[in-house]
Amino acid sequence: LQHVLVLSFCHFIGTMKFNRNVSSSRRKCRKRHFSAPSSVRRVIMSAPLSKELRQKHNVRSLPIRKDDEVMVTRGHFKGQQAGKVIQVYRKRWVVHIDRIQREKANGAQVYVGIHPSKVEITKLKLDKDRKKILDRKAKPKQTEKGKHKDVQQPMDTTASS
């Protein structure tokens, strides 16, 4: 019994798992990812912001939404001009962008689904709720920037009487 406990304890130390409620099993992680509800998929389907937006808002990524302007950064459609997001298709984990289409065998044009992690948001559709999200995400970073700026001066111990 002690031998089993030691082995399980060593396994626990080796994986550096902090939260006991979150599984590190590949099977369980994949199951929870692909059967996630729409509210969780929204957060998973986040896209990084462009360098200009990152500097401006002090936020690295945001959940993508319908009227954002994005540029594809990976894959066949990489580097084309920025396009507007037409649809966020949470069920299929993709976004549809207005200028990114392909032709089917019968001649019909269809949108190509692209995963949000492979695009970069170049222009945000801002409303009051999105501004709140940006402010909330940027607040901790603003406090961290001023963390070590106040360097205390050594106190003068020489007696000047």
Averaged pLDDT, please?
Answer: 86
Number of helices: 5
What is the 3D shape?
extended
User: What's the gyration radius in Å?
Assistant: 24 Å
Beta-strand portion reads 15-25%
User: Structural class, please?
Assistant: alpha+beta
Which regions are unreliable across 5 or more consecutive residues at pLDDT < 50?
4-10
Order of helices and strands: HHHEHEEEEEEH
* Cα end-to-end separation: 74 Å
The neighbouring-strand order within the major sheet is: 6-5-4-3-7
The biggest beta sheet is recorded as: 5 strands, antiparallel
Helix content class: 25-40%
Topology:
Elements: H1 2-15, H2 26-34, H3 38-44, E1 46-48, H4 51-57, E2 61-63, E3 69-72, E4 83-89, E5 94-103, E6 109-114, E7 119-123, H5 128-145
Antiparallel strand pairs: 1-2, 3-4, 3-7, 4-5, 5-6
Describe the structure.
It is a single chain. With 161 residues, the chain is α+β, with helices and mostly antiparallel strands. It has helices spanning 2-15, 26-34, 38-44, 51-57, 128-145, and strands at 46-48, 61-63, 69-72, 83-89, 94-103, 109-114, 119-123. Strands 6-5-4-3-7 form a five-stranded antiparallel sheet, with no helix packed on it. The longest helix is centred in the C-terminal third of the chain and has 18 residues, at 128-145. The radius of gyration is 24 Å and the shape is extended. The N and C termini lie far apart (74 Å). Mean pLDDT is 86; it is low at 4-10.
Summarize the structure.
With 161 residues, the protein is of the alpha+beta class. It has helices at residues 2-15, 26-34, 38-44, 51-57, 128-145; strands spanning 46-48, 61-63, 69-72, 83-89, 94-103, 109-114, 119-123.
